[in-house]
Amino acid sequence: MSAVTLVVSPTDGPDDTAALGVLAELGYSAADLVAVIGKTEGNGCVNDFSRTLAAAAWEPRLPASAVTVFSGGTEGVLSPHVNLFVRDETRHEGFDRGLVAAAGRTRVLSPAELGRTAQVDAVTETVGKLVAELGVSTGDVHFVLVKCPLLTSAKIAALRAAGREPVSGDTYESMGRSRAASSLGIAVALGECDRAAALAALSGEAEVSSARASASAGAELDDCHVLVVAESTAAANPLRALHGELTDAIDLASVTALLDEVERQGGRVRQVFAKAEADPSGSVRGLRHTMLTDSDVNSTRHARAAVGGLLAALKGDGAVYVSGGAEHQGRSGGGSITVIYELPSRGGEAT
Amino acid sequence: MSAVTLVVSPTDGPDDTAALGVLAELGYSAADLVAVIGKTEGNGCVNDFSRTLAAAAWEPRLPASAVTVFSGGTEGVLSPHVNLFVRDETRHEGFDRGLVAAAGRTRVLSPAELGRTAQVDAVTETVGKLVAELGVSTGDVHFVLVKCPLLTSAKIAALRAAGREPVSGDTYESMGRSRAASSLGIAVALGECDRAAALAALSGEAEVSSARASASAGAELDDCHVLVVAESTAAANPLRALHGELTDAIDLASVTALLDEVERQGGRVRQVFAKAEADPSGSVRGLRHTMLTDSDVNSTRHARAAVGGLLAALKGDGAVYVSGGAEHQGRSGGGSITVIYELPSRGGEAT
Amino acid sequence: MSAVTLVVSPTDGPDDTAALGVLAELGYSAADLVAVIGKTEGNGCVNDFSRTLAAAAWEPRLPASAVTVFSGGTEGVLSPHVNLFVRDETRHEGFDRGLVAAAGRTRVLSPAELGRTAQVDAVTETVGKLVAELGVSTGDVHFVLVKCPLLTSAKIAALRAAGREPVSGDTYESMGRSRAASSLGIAVALGECDRAAALAALSGEAEVSSARASASAGAELDDCHVLVVAESTAAANPLRALHGELTDAIDLASVTALLDEVERQGGRVRQVFAKAEADPSGSVRGLRHTMLTDSDVNSTRHARAAVGGLLAALKGDGAVYVSGGAEHQGRSGGGSITVIYELPSRGGEAT
Amino acid sequence: MSAVTLVVSPTDGPDDTAALGVLAELGYSAADLVAVIGKTEGNGCVNDFSRTLAAAAWEPRLPASAVTVFSGGTEGVLSPHVNLFVRDETRHEGFDRGLVAAAGRTRVLSPAELGRTAQVDAVTETVGKLVAELGVSTGDVHFVLVKCPLLTSAKIAALRAAGREPVSGDTYESMGRSRAASSLGIAVALGECDRAAALAALSGEAEVSSARASASAGAELDDCHVLVVAESTAAANPLRALHGELTDAIDLASVTALLDEVERQGGRVRQVFAKAEADPSGSVRGLRHTMLTDSDVNSTRHARAAVGGLLAALKGDGAVYVSGGAEHQGRSGGGSITVIYELPSRGGEAT
């Protein structure tokens, strides 16, 4: 079993692991960690060493089964923090279901495979395995997070020296290609499309998206780190999840609908995980945006800042998880969104 | 008299003056313009030539009495547009008051005066003159917009060659100093503080702010352009204004309060003018932000993107006026905000 | 005839046309201008409004036959300036040849044509026409400068709405595609390759480059502006040109060889025109560079700064013309370079 | 004793410690390291986590006596690498002097002390101690490198909460203030000025500089790391050092003079250590530069790229150490420069 609780903790810097002390105060240890999902304060793009630094600080402290996902970029009011998914099998009285999570890794992907069918398949396989491990149906899954590799200049050069052409010769663009493949792998695993449709979408010939997929690319790994979060009747805890979709970057209504549902249930928002992107059409609701013509600041940075401004205001603080680049993660120009919330206590606890 | 209407029009680029065609279709001409207030798509900082380009395109087309204020930076979902304040003395039936506006310029400020007492005084004088011209009390004023100069390397070098020290040797910082002086000049003119308090605030020894002040600095001018917007019983039109204050960059409640009041009156939001800044304390509601340690993207850009994300979502489109750098414009870490809205028609029109 | 002299003049800003005063002092007028070739101080990328501003300031002052080429980006020690090619048919005593120049424009290129065969052909045609107009052989040509369009978000969206796919969906990348097509058009016109080879090179299947080509892309125009500079025995003036090739971005030897030849002839360097790029292999002389993995600063900015640092030191001042993005302009990782120099006077002047 | 050899090794990333393998092949171990001086590929400014990552990777592998100095920013053709100063007491036949080095740390500096007298004094003391340890006269010292702290938002906020005002409220500016204090501390220790002059210079009332000082600031430490490199007759090895001064960022002559001297001695350049800055006057040799008005790219990045372009071309590869921000390190607008070179072997070796 893998019932979990969620601990959200601010960080003083990418290498700040003080959240482990918070865990200890709550009676947990690092050995209980399923995943560390952090927002770090780099540029969130190719040369974001804040992610690598965070991974270097956290990974030696984690059990082999746990994964890290560090998403760079805390533009605007976003605040650097970590979200700890912590194994806690406590059965809370009055609850007949609860939040569960499982983490794993794909095999190492070669640079030639990045952004291509092999990556889609590897992610599909790992997500499928984790869903099975959780013993839930795909309908119970509310959030699948993937951290996947990108192509550096060195990897591109090595590929070309070997007579292979990478999916993109542009390092920044390779991030989007990698996110796309990961997200389509998630969509297949969750039954949102079949493999053929995913591969057609990968080559731009079909539109496929998953409102539960969240993918982020980085130079700090060679395989994909995967986290699946679901609700399960095998657990009994007050945490719940809802997912939805931003139809565009200013889609207040969709977020409000989710938050209203939490309120209707008497719940309290614990965290919001959202993807954001610059609408590839160049406009939002018919008005031109300039995120894709700004050669000084990449569009993923703009998108995080803007959607982060909205979500932080709605949540009431800046420690929200907003990640940039939403290829196949919610519809084009929008993004996937998952809210994790806590229902009020319904009595004492029973083991 | 100077009753005005407001035309908000998207632009295709900084030099796009197609809004003049929109004016013509509405029966106005360029000669009716009181002010052109635009968001242009540069970096909003020292070397933002989008502002200069917009001024070069618009100013030859305007009457001598009109002013331009181009605020650079359409980060995130913000959409480049112009807000035309157009003289329209039509007396609309059923209204006993209406929106009025007046525009003017201070004298040319020398680089040595920038950010200093002379600038405070010059702005105070011009704002005072415009308020008097409008024949309103300072309590009727809801918005005072100032575009003011900054210091370039060349100006700093010239000053130093003349044995004078500029208010700052850093070109980007000079923008903040100029905005500060302009805003304090507004505060004095509106009676929100006396001159002594303003000068103390200028030197960091007092806290003074105006929720109606909006100042923006640029290299494209040597004097200050000033626009005063008020309500007056001498006019009779359906436009109204409300002003408030963001207490911080995620202050949803203050914005909602303004929008609720508009709704209570049956009005329709026409435009939102807001200032935004990175909280100088380095945190928002106790959580660290990274806008002031990001050496790749200046903090004013971050602040516009974040607050723009919120306000665009609330307004429902990205053509909102969000300007970065809120020194003395609303409280520290927050910013001033003015909503211009339109009441429903109450009958036919009478000249 | 079109014998020319060259006036290099620093600028105070993109819209500074004070060089016209310099012209007047030298006895020329704006009507004598063949071309204004400037370095302006924007980012040199998609949203560089310094180029548009410069064009807006200069173009109304020029004869219809003249062209402007504004190349953005004065990173590092590069200094904003204009290079005026001025018609001057004076026959200087003691000279039996001299510098000549001709300028023209291609037809307007549609966004769908950008970066494709149509652009190659249009540039080939215009360069060919100008070479013929000069009455020189292609071997006498030392420098062909092209300013060509790029794709903005709006153009990309319009193309896609019409069911057409642009050469690139990335605005920054479209600049490189446009420079590539222009440069290959130059190579064909100069007889450095045939059209088939150029088209193969355009699609990445062949390597073609011209050491005399210099192409720069911008949003400020829809056609291509072309300038051809050659030596001709029909002119008699002390200006001469040499061209060469940087084999990489630190190729001191090739520059020194050109400068030594100038010195050997007793000449004085008047201007250096060079292209620069981040080596697409990711390394220079076997050592990794980071220009292609820097998501904060585009590689063309890095390349201009670095090569500008070298050439400015060699020339002795920062008013050199270094332009970024050297696709097919000199060999890969290097760039084309043309030196214009002046031989010592050989007596009086004769009309 | 502390005779040293120098190993220059390229890195694959900030956390690449493969140079330790190079050391091993040469018969050294990590225990022999005196200092690791690296160029890492971040932005070289406040939020440069490449430095922190490099320190995290290297410091656990070093003896307690060794220091690290990681200088961020490999703009343009600069190539990420490490310079290892390795203890090697071998007495090479035919040499009666050789390169020596000593490393140490100041006490921890409080944020309130940063950029102020206390920092000057602490650096003076540590440099003095290291010079004494080496047993050389200050005239034999050719290079003093200091890595010193900066102020983050958190440190500034903490200071202000305690009622103290930091030397600067701007995080980027704090780097310059810290470099200034360190460099003046070096100047005092080397006898280039007295303490009173240094303190006057610190407050802008005097001009003091050291052509042997190289200071770099970072968030990755709280004390100052110091390395002193000298020639000594107590050693006997083929390494030598020369120092000079760039009078401005395009001062080819000064560099050439140093390189010519190396050549005159039959030596081979092993490394060049230089500081660079944007001339604070806003111009270089009378021509305007735009490094101080570029709000997208900080001036230290521009300066590294430009001077790096020149020095890499002169050295013949990009693995040169160019660091940005040259306050009191060589004259204003220029920078200090030290060349380490190797004389030809003069026979066998004797222990």
Automatic annotation (TrEMBL), chains A, B, C, D:
Name the pathway it acts in.
Xenobiotic degradation; atrazine degradation; biuret from cyanurate: step 1/1
The record's EC number reads 3.5.2.15
According to its UniProt record, which residues of this chain constitute the active site? Answer: 147, 216
Q: Where is this region: RU A?
A: 1-91
Asked whether the UniProt record includes Hydrolase among its keywords, one would answer yes
Query: Where is substrate annotated to bind?
Result: 51, 71-72, 179, 216-217, 304, 323-324
Annotated site location: Important for substrate specificity: 300
Q: What is the regulatory mechanism acting on its activity? A: Inhibited by barbituric acid.
| Record GO biological process | atrazine catabolic process
InterPro entries named among the record's database cross-references: AtzD/Barbiturase, AtzD/Barbiturase_RUA, AtzD/Barbiturase_RUB, AtzD/Barbiturase_RUC
What's its top-level EC category? Answer: hydrolase
Annotated region (RU C) at 239-351
Superkingdom of the organism of origin: Bacteria
Q: Which UniProt keywords apply?
A: Hydrolase
Task: Supply the domain comment.
Answer: The monomer structure is formed from three repeating units (RUs) that share the same structure as one another. The monomer, the active site and substrate all possess threefold rotational symmetry, to the extent that the active site possesses three potential Ser-Lys catalytic dyads. It is possible that any or all of the three active-site serines may act as nucleophile (albeit only one can do so per catalytic cycle).
Family designation: Belongs to the cyclic amide hydrolase (CyAH) family.
Subunit architecture: Homotetramer.
Q: What does this protein do?
A: Responsible for the hydrolysis of cyanuric acid, an intermediate formed during catabolism of s-triazine based compounds in herbicides such as atrazine and polymers such as melamine. Catalyzes the hydrolytic opening of the s-triazine ring of cyanuric acid (2,4,6-trihydroxy-s-triazine) to yield carbon dioxide and carboxybiuret, which spontaneously decarboxylates to biuret.
Q: What is this protein called?
A: Cyanuric acid amidohydrolase
